[in-house]
Design brief:
mainly alpha, single chain
Length: 130
């Protein structure tokens, strides 16, 4: 029941979480983009920056005029959870798949993307409060 409520409250965030899990666990075909240095790392950075920005946006939109805004909830759900998810995905790639390998540099890029998303979220908060 808890999970169903969260999915209803944060539909786009939930969709992005599911999409990231799928994309990160399926085999990736070789493309011309594979030749670009660090393309994989930029992809991780952008995925997690987007996810975190969307989480913050959905949270802030729901609490725009409310007195129930809580920094603790936002930092856990909008920062800590995406970082943990990034680590879990890297572990899953390393130990549960034969087509992917876990990479701690990917985890670093995920985490930097989360920080970017938080910065975007703070900017959104300032705009929405404006």
């Amino acid at each position: 029941m808890f999970l169903a409520k969260k999915i209803k409250k944060y539909p786009l965030s939930s969709l992005l979480v599911a999409a990231i899990w799928v994309v990160c666990l399926i085999p990736v075909p070789e493309t011309p983009l594979s030749e670009i240095n660090f393309f994989d790392k930029w992809t991780h950075f952008v995925m997690y920056g987007t996810l975190t920005s969307v989480i913050w946006f959905e949270y802030l939109r729901r609490h725009k005029k409310s007195k129930t805004f809580q920094w603790k909830a936002l930092l856990i759900g909008g920062m800590l959870c995406p970082v943990i998810m990034g680590g879990l995905i890297e572990l899953a790639q390393a130990y549960l798949t034969t087509c992917r390998s876990g990479d701690w540099f990917d985890f670093l890029c995920n985490s930097l993307g989360v920080l970017l998303g938080c910065l975007i979220g703070l900017i959104l908060r300032a705009i929405l409060r404006g």
